[in-house]
Design goal:
Elements: H1 8-25, H2 34-42, H3 59-69, H4 74-81, H5 85-92, H6 101-111, H7 115-121, H8 127-135, H9 137-148, H10 152-164
Helix pairs in contact: 1-5, 4-5, 6-7, 8-9
């Protein structure tokens, strides 16, 4: 799925639907998709709650119910992110501008995406990157303009070199 040709909301919708399809396709009928089983094992807040014990029920009936809940609907994603389903639906349909940086970060976490990528698709830059750029605007403007001309592999090589210096 190309991120350059989609608007922010359309990308969110496609990503949410892809997660739902993957969750449904990862399990045979009547089985819990691996991602759901792992999420149940970690619990909602990431804490280990133990296999076989879940808030939504015990045994196979609880597992099947959780498998059905793996479908990532607008309502389910909105609940995870802490926004109204109608608001998220309007964003997906392009009827509402992209949300705040904090909301985009929560969307990214819920979708397993990189927050910086979603922010860029929304036409935004994270606050921490804005601060870095403001400290040396001329240097970063020139750097970005030069990087724009380089192939991805060359940019990745530079990033790896900088990261490995630490």
């Amino acid at each position: 799925m190309s991120t350059t040709t989609l608007h922010f909301g359309e990308y969110l919708r496609q990503r949410r639907e892809a997660i739902a399809v993957a969750a449904r396709g990862a399990a045979a009928p009547g089985q819990v998709p691996p991602a759901v089983a792992e999420a149940d094992h970690r619990g909602a807040a990431g804490a280990d709650v133990g296999r076989g014990r879940a808030a939504s029920g015990k045994g196979s009936a609880g597992r099947i119910r959780r498998a059905k809940q793996a479908h990532l609907s607008v309502r389910a994603l909105a609940k995870r992110v802490g926004v109204e389903p109608s608001y998220l639906s309007k964003i997906e349909r392009g009827l509402q501008p992209p949300p705040s940086e904090a909301t985009i970060a929560r969307l990214a976490a819920a979708l397993g995406e990189d927050a910086d990528v979603l922010l860029a698709m929304a036409g935004k830059v994270s606050t921490d990157l804005q601060e870095v750029i403001r400290k040396r605007p001329a240097i970063f403007a020139e750097l970005i303009r030069q990087l724009k001309k380089m192939p991805d592999r060359a940019v990745l090589r530079i990033v790896r070199q900088l990261r490995d210096r630490r």
